[in-house]
């Protein structure tokens, strides 16, 4: 037995060391202070229990204690250790579940019994002072006269047996109270364990019986020492409980949290897939499903159903206004956030009022927080300003009797407000942490859905704009002549627009006085450039058609000036565009070609001499079109002739300015080189050959830089004299 | 500061200044004008120069583009708008813009000469 006692006393060391490590680790964690305080108190009580047992065992008769004192002190300290440990374990859940009042009520009941046990323990302790003296006087004789007794020790032992027996009975009641009342809270709130209390009862009974069975001592020297080894059962239970909650369940909680996180991620992924793949009208249904699922989750998590969230509403920010987008986004019992009484409204009318109610985001954002008088606006404003869930049970007069709790959860994508949701409770004025989590999760999912919906709207708008750009580009290319032809010449043309609408244009217009043709380019890109190109073509056609109607040819410079004036009026003055353009107009009459305007230096292959003539007169002889109505093109007039197999190459700057990787432009030299190589080909073949050379030149330059497209529009007009 | 008390523009890659010279004034443009809307800078500057030229009855101003490596179409439009102001002036208030350009810079060779045609007699290439 002595060995058993010694082993037990040493076993306290690992228990206390393990408990100390757990306490230190918990203390360093944020938000766990309460738990560490009670854990520390528990360890302190356990230490006192150990000290009492050690002192009694090691010092024996040097101490005024024998088995009764050790028995009661160890029992009380152990029970305190146990109750503090259990409270340290459950305190957070008790507080979060708003069960502190229930718990404290149960603790007061326990306290009454524990107080009684304490009084009896005190009697036992005071009895120790009578150890050395006579035991036949009150109160040491407990009212029983032992005058003339032969063995006063025997009398003392009998008295202690009686008091300790009473104490044990009370302690058993206390332990049963602890097992069945103190932590007997709502099911599911805490993980209640009764076995430590039963262990205490077991050890109390064992020790009590063992001491009662012992023969009473006849002297101080032979007084019984409590077999404290039995307390090792309690030490074992203590450490099992410590490991179970602070180690096993912590690990379990971590794994559970990880699993929950993965599940949330999975749900988010599914959500993303559904929203992206779904039609727009399905999005509202998805939001409804999320809301329903959240309310179901609340039902599943709440022990007392009548205390749970009873309704949820979702508002989305559209433009500058928050509103409920769909009647399906009102679930459960929901009400407007009304100041005035709405008690006379039925559910349908309440829902209608919610659907009609909007909140101006600008007002909520620009008004100082807390100054808005309207209850709903004030609540929403504060939640949005703080970017956190706002809970209030201080409902206005209009809501009293209908709702007891209102919750507003803002929906944010980083700093971008997307909406908010409101939740209501009609029977309870507190929000459970689990409910707050579920609402937070719903807001998170709604953030995803709204962000994707906004993305889809942007994409839809982008597609619409792209469609319009395509239409604009189609207009630019569709106004080009279907069949470019000049009598006495082979003609081929080519145009490839850049990524956006450009401003290249060419045209061929047969008239009784010869064939007018031309090429031009608007400075810059985009829709304004395309519009200017279209206006210039319309103006050219108008001028020539008017001349045809009048039955007389219009000089080439007058055609050019007419186009210029139209562009000044429409493009510069009315549209307000800052675009201008270059053009060369030509009039082919037999082998003679007149020209006017300013565009690019053209290349003319002379077949007879196998040489190339640069037509420099096509540039810098007049001003750009669309800038000044005072400009006259007369001085840019000129002409040249073409003989059999001569080749004229007209082009836009997109050809000559196409760059290679070194930034070197294709230039007029590139065109001349193509002419030297391929002038014998038909104009169509020549264009293909020139384009091959151009692409080769720009492959590692502009084409690589712009995903296989040229930086600027590419236009070519090639005439070969028959 | 110049005789018209017009403050220079010095923003990013753009420097535009009005300098006094022996015969009159020089608008000196230096740098690279490729911003989206240079008219926001250039239009007010050219307007002040124009008003000063008219008020001071100064016969000509040199527009020195030699240090300007690039001028986008919006910038050319701004210069063109300045030139167009001369078309509206009565004969006794007209002045001349003399463009100094750098033949080694392609855009100057292809674009600046065409500005001389906008308002006959108003612009001269030096």
Molecular structure report:
The complex is a heterodimer of chains A (722) and B (126). Chain A has 722 residues and is of the alpha+beta class. Chain A has three domains: 2-255; 278-458, 2-Layer Sandwich (Beta-Lactamase); 479-654 and 716-721, PPM-type phosphatase domain (Phosphatase 2c, domain 1, 4-Layer Sandwich). Chain A is built from 18 helices and 17 strands. In chain A, the strands form three sheets. In chain A, strands 1, 2, 3, 4, 5, 6 and 7 form a seven-stranded antiparallel sheet that branches. A five-stranded antiparallel sheet of chain A has the order 8-17-16-13-14. Chain A has a five-stranded antiparallel sheet with strand order 9-10-11-12-15. In chain A, β6 (405-413) and β7 (416-425) form a beta hairpin. In chain A, α1 runs antiparallel to α2 (33-59) and α4 (100-129) runs antiparallel to α5 (152-182). Residues 138-146 of chain A have low confidence and may be disordered. The longest helix of chain B is centred in the middle third of the chain and has 17 residues, at 39-55. The chains are: A alpha+beta (722), B alpha/beta (126). Chain A binds chain B through residues 523-524, 578-580, 598, 619-620, 622-624, 627-628, 630-633, 635, and chain B through 39, 72-74, 76-77, 80, 83-84, 87, 110-111, 113-120.
Brief account:
Chain A is an alpha+beta fold and 722 residues long. Chain A has helices spanning 2-28, 33-59, 67-96, 100-129, 152-182, 195-213, 232-277, 280-301, 347-356, 361-366, 375-386, 433-478, 527-550, 556-574, 653-656, 667-678, 683-698, 702-705, and strands at 311-318, 321-323, 330-332, 359-360, 390-392, 405-413, 416-425, 489-496, 504-511, 514-522, 581-589, 592-598, 602-606, 611-615, 638-641, 647-651, 714-721.
Set down the secondary structure blueprint:
The complex is a heterodimer of chains A (722) and B (126).
Chain A: H1 2-28, H2 33-59, H3 67-96, H4 100-129, H5 152-182, H6 195-213, H7 232-277, H8 280-301, E1 311-318, E2 321-323, E3 330-332, H9 347-356, E4 359-360, H10 361-366, H11 375-386, E5 390-392, E6 405-413, E7 416-425, H12 433-478, E8 489-496, E9 504-511, E10 514-522, H13 527-550, H14 556-574, E11 581-589, E12 592-598, E13 602-606, E14 611-615, E15 638-641, E16 647-651, H15 653-656, H16 667-678, H17 683-698, H18 702-705, E17 714-721
Antiparallel strand pairs in A: 1-2, 1-3, 1-7, 2-4, 5-6, 6-7, 8-17, 9-10, 10-11, 11-12, 12-15, 13-14, 13-16, 16-17
Chain B: E1 9-11, E2 14-20, E3 25-33, H1 39-55, E4 60-71, H2 73-87, E5 96-100, H3 106-115, E6 123-125
Parallel strand pairs in B: 3-4, 4-5, 5-6
Antiparallel strand pairs in B: 1-2, 2-3
């Amino acid at each position: 037995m002595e060995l058993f006692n010694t082993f037990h006393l040493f076993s306290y060391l690992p228990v206390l060391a393990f408990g100390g490590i757990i306490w230190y680790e918990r203390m360093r964690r944020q938000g766990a202070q309460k738990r560490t305080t009670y854990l520390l108190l528990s360890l302190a009580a356990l230490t006192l229990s150990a000290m009492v047992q050690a002192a009694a065992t090691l010092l024996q008769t040097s101490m005024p204690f024998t088995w009764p004192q050790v028995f009661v002190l160890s029992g009380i300290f152990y029970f305190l250790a146990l109750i503090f440990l259990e409270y340290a374990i459950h305190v957070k859940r008790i507080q979060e579940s708003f069960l502190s009042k229930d718990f404290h009520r149960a603790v007061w009941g326990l306290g009454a019994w524990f107080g009684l046990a304490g009084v009896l323990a005190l009697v036992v302790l005071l009895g120790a002072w009578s150890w050395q003296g006579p035991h036949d006087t009150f109160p040491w004789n407990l009212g029983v006269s032992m005058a003339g007794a032969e063995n006063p020790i025997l009398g003392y032992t009998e008295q202690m047996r009686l008091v300790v027996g009473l104490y044990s009975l009370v302690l058993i009641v206390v332990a049963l109270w602890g097992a069945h009342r103190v932590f007997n809270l709502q099911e599911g709130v805490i993980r209640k364990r009764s076995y430590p209390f039963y262990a205490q009862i077991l050890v109390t009974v064992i020790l009590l019986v063992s001491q009662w069975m012992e023969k009473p001592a006849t002297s101080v020297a032979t007084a019984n020492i409590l077999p404290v080894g039995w307390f090792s059962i309690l030490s074992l239970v203590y450490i099992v409980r410590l490991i179970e909650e602070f180690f096993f369940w912590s690990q379990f909680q971590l794994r559970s949290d990880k699993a929950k996180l993965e599940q949330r991620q999975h749900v988010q992924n599914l959500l993303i897939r559904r929203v992206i793949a779904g039609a727009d009208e399905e999005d509202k249904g998805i939001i409804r499903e999320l809301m329903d699922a959240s309310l179901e989750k609340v039902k599943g998590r709440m022990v007392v159903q009548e205390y749970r969230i009873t309704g949820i509403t979702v508002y989305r920010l559209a433009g500058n206004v928050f509103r409920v987008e769909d009647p399906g986004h009102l679930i459960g019992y929901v009400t407007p956030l009304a100041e005035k009484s709405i008690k006379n409204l039925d559910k349908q009318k309440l829902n209608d009022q919610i659907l009609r109610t909007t909140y101006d985001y600008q007002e909520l954002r620009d008004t100082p927080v807390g100054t808005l008088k309207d209850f709903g606006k004030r609540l929403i404003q504060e939640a949005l300003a703080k970017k956190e869930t706002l809970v209030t049970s201080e409902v206005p007069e209009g809501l009293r009797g209908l709702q007891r709790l209102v919750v507003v959860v803002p929906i944010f994508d980083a700093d971008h407000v997307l909406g908010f949701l409101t939740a209501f409770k009609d029977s309870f004025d507190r929000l459970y942490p689990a409910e707050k989590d579920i609402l937070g999760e719903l807001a998170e999912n709604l953030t995803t859905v709204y962000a994707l919906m906004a993305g889809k709207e942007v994409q839809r708008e982008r597609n619409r704009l792209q469609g319009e750009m395509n239409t604009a580009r189609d207009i630019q290319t569709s106004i080009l002549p279907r069949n470019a032809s000049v009598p006495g010449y082979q003609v081929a043309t080519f145009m490839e627009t850049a990524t956006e609408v450009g401003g290249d244009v060419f045209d061929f217009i047969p008239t009784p006085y010869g064939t007018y043709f031309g090429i031009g380019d608007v400075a810059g890109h985009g829709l304004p450039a395309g519009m200017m190109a279209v206006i210039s073509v319309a103006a050219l056609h108008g001028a020539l058609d008017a001349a045809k109607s009048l039955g007389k040819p219009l000089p080439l410079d007058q055609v050019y000036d007419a186009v210029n004036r139209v562009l000044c009026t429409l493009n510069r003055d009315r549209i307000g565009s800052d675009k201008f353009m270059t053009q060369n107009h030509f009039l082919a009459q037999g082998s003679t070609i007149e020209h006017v305007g300013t565009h690019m230096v053209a290349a003319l292959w002379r077949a007879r001499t196998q040489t190339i003539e640069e037509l420099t007169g096509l540039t810098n002889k007049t001003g750009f079109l669309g800038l000044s109505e005072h400009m006259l093109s007369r001085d840019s007039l000129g002409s040249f002739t073409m003989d059999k197999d001569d080749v004229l190459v007209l082009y836009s700057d997109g050809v000559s300015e196409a760059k290679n990787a070194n930034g070197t432009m294709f230039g007029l030299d590139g065109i001349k080189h193509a002419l030297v190589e391929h002038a014998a080909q038909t104009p169509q073949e020549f264009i293909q050959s020139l384009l091959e050379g151009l692409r080769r030149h720009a492959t590692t330059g502009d084409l690589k830089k712009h995903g296989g497209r040229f930086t600027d529009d590419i236009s070519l007009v090639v005439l070969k004299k028959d | 500061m110049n005789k018209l008390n017009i403050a220079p523009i010095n923003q990013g890659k753009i420097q535009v200044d009005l300098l006094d010279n022996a015969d009159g004034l020089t608008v000196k443009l230096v740098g690279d004008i490729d911003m989206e809307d240079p008219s926001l800078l250039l239009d007010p500057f050219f307007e002040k120069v124009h008003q000063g030229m008219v008020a001071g009855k100064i016969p000509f101003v040199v527009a020195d583009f030699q240090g300007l490596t690039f001028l986008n179409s919006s910038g050319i439009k701004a210069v063109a708008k300045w030139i167009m102001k001369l078309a509206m002036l009565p004969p006794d208030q007209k002045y001349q813009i003399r463009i100094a350009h750098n033949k080694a810079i392609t855009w100057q060779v292809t674009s600046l000469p065409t500005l001389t045609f906008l308002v006959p007699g108003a612009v001269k290439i030096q």
